[in-house]
Amino acid sequence: QVQLVESGGGSVQAGGSLRLSCAASGDTSSYYYMAWFRQAPGKEREGVAAANRRNGRKYSDHVKDRFTISTDNAMNTLYLQMNSLKPEDTAIYYCAAGDPGAWWAGIKYWGQGTQVTVSS
Questions:
Q1: Distance between alpha carbon 85 and the CA centroid of its chain, in Å?
Q2: Is residue 24 within 8 Å of 4, Cβ to Cβ?
Q3: pLDDT in tens, 3-51
Q4: Cα(93)–Cα(34) distance, rounded to whole angstroms?
């Protein structure tokens, strides 16, 4: 029903910046919020940042004050501005969309992911 495609990943040095984008297609009215998750080598997938249709925002403690999530009004496109990147931010970043409820829960759709690598 919904397809999510990430872009904007790459390799940067510590302290650098990247902006990730996620384009949604299909039934884009079928979800209430969108989010970015990431999975680092040897670790579980974790929520990074989320945005709902009422302009609510949620960030992982790991990225507070460094990352900013944003979206267009129709929530067809999701962005993640990542500043002051650290090597521990290295991961595959996934775009997701889900239902109302607790943050990070109710995910209905997942993108395929985009690699972010931060070197020191």
A1: 15
A2: yes
A3: 999 999 999 999 999 999 999 999 999 999 999 999 999 999 999 999 9
A4: 13
